[in-house]
Amino acid sequence: QLQASGGGLVQAGGSLRLSCVASGGNISVYSLAWFRQAPGKEREFVAAHSWSGGRSYYADSLKTRFTISRDNAKNTLFLQMNSLKSEDTAVYYCAAGSSGYSGGYYYVYAARSTYEYWGQGTQVTVSS
Question: How far apart are CA 18 and CA 10, in angstroms?
Answer without folding.
Answer: 13
